[in-house]
């Protein structure tokens, strides 16, 4: 599974990395999210989807 954060849509609310800290992390400078590993293995797919669904800006895509 591939996971991406749209840096323009992300507002840094932090819900994704609070929901799925093994998939998402905050950038130090502004708290906006990035994906720890673009390719997410099966063991973290559910967490990645939960994080994406929790994002109020719909900035995360999983495919
Ligand atoms: S929940 Fe969405 S808006 Fe908030 S930090 Fe994560 S990607 Fe950005």
Automatic annotation (TrEMBL):
<dbReference type="Pfam" id="PF13370">
    <property type="entry name" value="Fer4_13"/>
</dbReference>
<keyword id="KW-0411">Iron-sulfur</keyword>
<dbReference type="InterPro" id="IPR051269">
    <property type="entry name" value="Fe-S_cluster_ET"/>
</dbReference>
<protein>
    <recommendedName>
        <fullName>Ferredoxin</fullName>
    </recommendedName>
</protein>
<keyword id="KW-0249">Electron transport</keyword>
<dbReference type="GO" id="GO:0051538">
    <property type="term" value="F:3 iron, 4 sulfur cluster binding"/>
</dbReference>
<keyword id="KW-0003">3Fe-4S</keyword>
<dbReference type="GO" id="GO:0046872">
    <property type="term" value="F:metal ion binding"/>
</dbReference>
<keyword id="KW-0813">Transport</keyword>
<keyword id="KW-0408">Iron</keyword>
<keyword id="KW-0479">Metal-binding</keyword>
């Amino acid at each position: 599974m591939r996971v991406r954060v749209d840096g323009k849509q992300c507002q840094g609310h932090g819900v994704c990395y609070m929901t799925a800290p093994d998939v998402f992390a905050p950038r130090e400078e502004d708290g906006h999210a990035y994906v720890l590993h673009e390719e997410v293995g099966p063991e973290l797919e559910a967490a990645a989807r939960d994080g994406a669904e929790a994002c109020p800006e719909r900035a995360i895509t999983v495919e």
